[in-house]
Design brief:
277 residues; alpha/beta; Carbamate kinase; eight-stranded mixed sheet; binds adenosine-5'-diphosphate
């Protein structure tokens, strides 16, 4: 691969893990971009598959809801094993395989590899269950505060396409579950990326979810607080991630649909919800 490759700013793409996402279409686009000399860092989710497999293993998923209404997966040690099997195992391997089939030399990494995604584990998590506050202590979740951007640059500079997945690495070196959208925001900011594309199974941020005709085409950074009021459940974390990315210097975040033909190119051209300063 030419060295000039390293001089381009990577585009950071997060593809979710909810039902309906078409990974073949996403990988078609990623491969085309990389072939055109545009480096890509791809981050992926795996929530739907993790729910399916954990239920099949007799450990159905449990969701924690914070007082502010943010939801997260309750991740005890056993759930973390299932989480890692699905995210860093099955999902990551199959995405790397898709890219290899398309002639792209992808390298799969979890946040533990090279301490790629690092941050504190929450010692305890406050949640609301049946209207009552509970304190959960055996939860392996946390927040990404540092990104090993040097490792990503090393790979990109050598012509590889990094495919990144949670878990992350706690400050003490433990595997922790972190939100993929916020991890992608941290990666985009750390790499000085101009654009962060967040693909999911919806056309973008909807004013009246699930009415797809109510798509909000553009949101200013200053309006994000208000945009948060439209977001329910897991969409709230995406809005939070977008806000962190813009605060970290990313020019544009696009929420877009991963079920369409050409999903990345459509998002890069502004189809979806475009968030900017
Ligand atoms: P992924 O796993 O693909 O990252 P999530 O499931 O975490 O995606 O978040 C996307 C989901 O957020 C949608 O499938 C939808 O159910 C939900 N959602 C809640 N409120 C909204 C909204 N206002 N606009 C769009 N999606 C929303």
């Amino acid at each position: 691969m030419p060295n000039a490759f390293a001089q381009f700013q990577p585009v950071v793409i997060k593809v979710g893990g909810s039902a309906g996402i078409n990974y073949d279409l996403v990988c078609d686009d990623v491969a085309a971009l990389v072939r055109d000399g545009q480096p890509v860092v791809l981050i992926h989710g795996g929530s739907d598959e993790t729910n399916r497999i954990s239920t099949a293993l007799g450990k159905p998923p449990r969701t924690l809801v914070s007082a502010q209404g943010y939801t997260s997966r309750y991740t005890d040690a056993e759930t973390l094993d299932i989480f890692a099997m699905v995210y860093a195992g099955k999902m990551n391997t199959r995405i790397v395989e898709r890219l290899q089939k398309r002639g792209i030399d992808a390298v799969g990494l979890s946040g533990l590899d090279g301490r790629l995604l690092e941050g504190p584990r929450k010692t305890s998590v406050r949640a609301v269950e049946n209207g009552r506050q509970i304190l959960v202590r055996d939860d392996f979740t946390g927040k990404v505060e540092r990104v090993n951007a040097g490792l990503l640059r090393l790979l990109i500079g050598a012509g590889y396409t990094p495919v990144v997945s949670p878990p992350a690495c706690s400050n003490d070196g433990e595997a922790i579950n972190v939100d993929g959208d916020r991890a992608a925001a941290a990666i985009a900011a750390a790499l000085g990326a101009r654009q962060l594309i967040i693909l999911s199974n919806v056309p973008g941020l909807l004013r009246n979810f699930p009415d797809e005709a109510s798509l909000i085409p553009a949101v200013r950074y200053s309006e994000l607080e208000q945009a948060l009021s439209f977001a329910e459940g897991r969409m709230k974390k995406k809005v939070l991630g977008a806000s962190e990315a813009i605060a970290g210097g990313v020019e544009q975040v696009v929420f877009a649909d991963a079920r369409l033909e050409g999903p990345v190119r459509a998002a890069m051209a502004g189809r979806g919800t475009v968030i900017s300063k």
